Amino acid sequence: MSKTQTNTKVIANDKDLGQTGKFVRENQKSLIFIAAAIIAMVIIYFGYQKMYLAPREEKAASQMYVAQDFWAKKEWDKAIKGDAGYPGFEKIISDYSNTKAANLASFYLGVAYLNKGEYRKAIDNLTNYRGSDIMVAAEALGSTGDAYVELKDYDKASTYFKKAADKTNNKFLSPIYLKKLGLVYEAQNDYKSADETYKKIKSDYPESNEAQSMDGYIARVEAKL
Length: 225
What we know:
The chain is mostly helical.
């Protein structure tokens, strides 16, 4: 490249830089406004978290322990509706939406409705749970599967049992949900899938309680293949 060409390229680059500077000068007010808006949004977000959401979170958690105690005692109606001035899970969800406590209350409420035989309400609440706790999330999925079994919607039940087994991927809960999945396949007369599922319990979770009884299940479905 000649010296002239080099100088031409530098001048062109300088011109580009000049154009950029011109843009900044001409749009300075707009750029300042955008920057100020971003800063304001950040301040509002952290203010919302600290001054609004955090106190609500604390208050919801402090009020929910009575409902949790009723739930543990299997006093489902009191867990749902509350008692003696203490809110149940329904009110926690209603009054403290967008909090972690309300999210967890959805799980508790779903299980309570499942045990009361109100399966649609159970599904609605269990599927609203969005927590990060893997064990609770797996139980929410598995309980949703249980509700669909009661409604005889075996396709959806199998979907949720698969999700529950995959979610935990441990020797405690996964074999339980795989066994339920196998039983759903049997209810659908899909004995091949049931056979594969029962054998998966034996191969992947040989030390689980469920694996100890799988030979009988496998023999039963293989007799129908």
